[in-house]
Write a structure and sequence with these properties.
alpha+beta; Arc Repressor Mutant, subunit A; 3-stranded antiparallel beta sheet
Length: 89
């Protein structure tokens, strides 16, 4: 099985892609979606490794970290949605 399918099957991966559609989010906001700090970190790292998500450290006070979809991430999300629609129960 392809590594990307294994990643997408893991908790929080698709949810992260969905929430990042059209906007950047702070790490803490994403953590609330996934519900576990270590799982959030692992998913974001894996998605970043695949080139689907980019990480940016802000110059704001306390230097929050933002995550956003890359063009590859947008394309991946589009494919996930297409598969989801086609095989809807």
């Amino acid at each position: 099985m392809s590594k990307i399918f294994k990643l997408l099957a893991q908790k929080g991966a698709v949810e992260i892609l969905e929430k990042l559609d059209g906007k950047a989010m702070k790490y803490k906001e994403i953590e609330e979606i996934v519900g576990n700090p270590s799982t959030t970190s692992r998913r974001l790292s894996s998605l970043e490794e695949f080139g689907a998500v980019e990480r940016k450290v802000s110059s704001e006070k306390y230097r929050p970290v933002y995550y956003a979809l890359t063009e590859e991430g947008k394309e991946l999300l589009s494919i996930v949605r297409e598969i989801s629609e086609k095989y809807k129960p």
